[in-house]
Amino acid sequence: MHDFSPLLTGGRITLIAGDLLAGAFAEAGRNRRNYLAALHARAELAERTREEEARQRVGEERVRIARELHDIVAHHMALAHAQASTAAYLLRSQPDQAQEMLDELAGTTSAALRELKATVGLLREDDSDAPLEPTPGLAQLSELLTSFERTGLTLSLSITGVPRPLSPGADLTAYRIIQEALTNVAKHASTATATVRLVYSRLLLTISVSDDGGSGAVRGDQDSVAPGYGLIGMNERAVSVGGHLHAGPKPGGGFEVTTELPLEPPTTPDDEDATP
Known about the structure:
Blueprint: H1 10-93, H2 95-121, H3 141-149, E1 154-160, H4 168-188, E2 193-200, E3 204-211, H5 229-240, E4 244-249, E5 255-262, H6 269-274
Parallel strand pairs: 1-2
Antiparallel strand pairs: 2-3, 3-5, 4-5
């Protein structure tokens, strides 16, 4: 007779169970280490992403403030130069009018200082006492045109369609583009007349600023090779709010800046029907 001993004795079962348990603990340890490593990697990725987003926001804010400073300085310096030149011309023959122009010059420089202080104050977190100037927009368009007319520039304004609101960013963009375009006319064009047109459609506001200056005039601080910061800034502003801009010589002479900016959606069906 053969003596068969059982394959699974109590000792062997205990040994196998111990091996399985040890393997399970080892696998659990590896899984936990992998899990912690994945968490650490995701945390590092999230931190890098936050830092990159922060750097991008800082860069965008610097560009925005640089555009604001350029437009404020260019506009007010052009007005101040024109007012000072006019006052010097009138001083000999018409001192009363010269005094009026000097008073306007003082107002121009004061407005420039206020706008510069408000804009530069955005760079200082502790500048809580900085005056908060209202953000300019098309509501201040008449005052803007009047400031240019006081320098001797003859302007005409036409509005087609039903005026509708823009987003705050697009409203500021519209104002700054008109301001920069008229500043370029005052500085560079060989003419004293310009036309501003606003055309409201269902979805877009089309703005054009044109003059009839001679073909030899330099436009928008633009030379014969490449556009300057004025045209670049206007184009960046338009693109930043979902619009686009075109600037160039007119076929019959002169120069024109045209931009299309998105309008706020109509609030009621009647508003949409009334808009051509």
